[in-house]
Amino acid sequence: MAKVSWQVLRKDRELLVITVLSFACSIVVLVGLWVPAIWLFDASGPADGGKGGMNQTLALVGLATALALTVVGVFFKGALVSGAHERLSGGDPTVRSSLRRATSRLPALLPWAVLTFAVGLILAALKERAGRLGRFMTDMVGAAWGVATFLVIPAMIVDGHGTVSGLKASGSLLRETWGENLAARVGFGLLGFLAIVPAVILFFVAGALGGAALIVGIVVILAYVAYVVVVLTALSAVFQTALYPYATTGSVPAGFEGSNLRDSFILN
What we know:
Elements: H1 2-11, H2 14-44, H3 50-88, H4 95-104, H5 106-129, H6 132-148, H7 152-159, H8 163-175, E1 177-178, H9 182-209, H10 211-249, E2 266-267
Antiparallel strand pairs: 1-2
């Protein structure tokens, strides 16, 4: 499936640009929130709140950062799905057309981002306070949530669902099909692991050489890892988008003919 998704992605490198824009916006969010926060804290000094005040400030900025990053991630995931859907429907998407369609779905995407953030926050809080069994159960709940919501954004982008109806549609598709998209998630995870192996080898080689080789090696590794993340993010979005019309109508999208798409969702 990754090979077929890559063939589709090669026709629209704009999807890679969208992923890069997502990471760039995330960096802007981090800098925009943390630099002023650190500057204000340094300017006010510890006397204004002491260690307790610092912890509260860090907690608030951390929450704001997590929420903002979630919004950025959901929006650009919507843009990726928009571009992938346009290509799979026979169109020729651009970065502008993908962003425009995602922007038109902001009334659904923004509440979904907030809900995603809230669920993640609750699960993280429960896991922090739980014992070993509790942490395991929390991980299982998180995994189940990820599977049940796998097609929420495609439902919003492709069929115009709202936040609640998109969640219901994704859950309904899961209940009405045999098989699971876990195979795809595990498959892309394994692909990512294998892709990172060369970076690990290069790190140890550069570390053994030391000096300038280590610095150059680190730069190359960071660039390579960034490229792998960008490609895998786009590939996952293409595959996820292709699954939605197949799960809802049984039709295989353009570009996936002859693939093993049916292995991911076997209709009852």
